[in-house]
Amino acid sequence: MHIAPWVHVVAEQGAVPVDLLLPMTGRTYVIRLDGREMGDTDGVFLQFYDRMKLPDYFGWNWNALFDCLRDLNWLPAEHYVLIIEAADEILPGDAAGQRLLFRTLLRAGRRWSHTRRYDDVDLSRLVLVMSCAEASVPNLWEQLRRCEDEERSGDGDGDG
Fold it and tell me: Model pTM greater than 0.85?
């Protein structure tokens, strides 16, 4: 099941075909985050800051996270693969925070997947892989689908 071509949800120890993740050519930067370390919003921002080596000007809020994810100029590569392990453990008990994170990731993925340079060459792509307990896969897909629907309709809490 795909929400968008750049989003994949897999059970722990599950597999995603490599051709869906990695391009045929070009430099790819892989970032691994741990959902178990994202118990609150500070933990979310800290994971991104530490693991993605976010720039010092990162503002420690949702808008700043999106701004960094849409830019990525401090990590020069043609493609990016963002792997979040234990994604079902992100922000337990904070459904609004989960929605903001998922919407931020979906917006960033959409931005990278639909932007072309003036010479009609695709810009770098951002692929999101969320790994979770097998029993959590359907629920995580549903959460992402709802976030995608909110993004398309413009509903939700906003991004800040």
Answer: no
